[in-house]
Amino acid sequence: MRLGPFLNLLIALLGAPLLIGVVNRTKAFFAGRRGAPVLQLYFDLAKLLRKGAVYSRTTTWVFRAGPVAGLAAVLLALTVVPFGNAPALVAFPGDFVLLASLLALMRFVTILAALDTGSSFEGMGASREALFSALAEPALLIGLAAIARDTGGVSLSDMLAETSLVDWSRARPAAAIVSIALFVVFLAENSRIPVDDPDTHLELTMIHEVMVLDHGGPDLALILYGAALKFWALGSLLMGIVLPATGLQPALGWAVLPAGLVGLAVATGIVESSMARLRLIRVPQLLVGASALSVLALVMTLR
Fold it and tell me: How many domains does the chain have?
């Protein structure tokens, strides 16, 4: 039995909250502040798990099941994402469709939990989340289809295994275009600027944060941890294309992807520190543009 995929999953489970700390520390650096410790999310999760949960009498079991089902969905998504030189824990033809479906399921149960509160405020955030996710999914799926066509792989493990630094040295315009599109999807799916602001408290601009306002204690811990795992999963997918570890020495391969994820977290912090959030009417244009880039990359691979 290969231990690589199991070890990769364990690293993801333990290291995902660290990336959020790197993002926040980068933002603090550019703001001229000391900022919270890099391990702050670990402390927050431990504190929330020790607390109790309070539920409104207007909510049903749907509200309580949302955080659990969302975390389960992203955990399953991690099993199909390869990391470094090792393949994914679960790999089969077309598994990238399952990845997109599991991420969609995570959003779906979060939206249902928000709607179950009966709050028009959370319903507003849920409607925005549904709209933007529907626009981001085509960019993700078409982009992965372009990579599949370019590499000849039919699963994520095969697709990323066929990608190497040698291919980049020979210029791969399709992969470069897909990388740009997936970076936009990465920011959108993780509720980051310019699509959403995780630190905002303005009612008219909140999207993801407004959907989880009524959650607290262990439920909020599951949501925060699930968001960190989603950050890791999509980041690993993007870094698998940008910084492929195929053909490298095992020790170097194990170091490339973690370093790439930390660099991606720093880049996310830089983006959030250097630009403002887009107006809501501009977000669909950004996501449609990402889908157009994915379509362009797919057309280039069909030549």
Answer: 1
- Cβ distance 248 to 85 under 8 Å? yes
CB 126 within 8 A of CB 281: no
**Enclosing domain of residue 118:** 4-301
What gap in Å lies between CA 81 and CA 239, rounded to an integer? 11
Burial of 87 (0-12, 13-18, 19+ CB in 10 A): buried
Cβ neighbours for 123, distance < 8 A, ≥ 6 positions apart = 114, 115
Residue-wise pLDDT tens digits, 67-101? 999 999 999 999 999 887 778 889 899 899 999 99
User: Cβ distance 167 to 175 under 8 Å?
Assistant: yes
Whether pLDDT at 259 is above 90: no
Percentage helix, strand, coil, to 5, in the chain?
A: 70, 0, 30
188 with 132: CB under 8 angstroms? Answer: yes
* Exposed/middle/buried for residue 258 (C-beta within 10 Å: 0-12, 13-18, 19+): middle
| pLDDT tens digits, one per residue of 127-145 | 999 999 999 999 999 999 9
The predicted model scores a pTM of 0.93
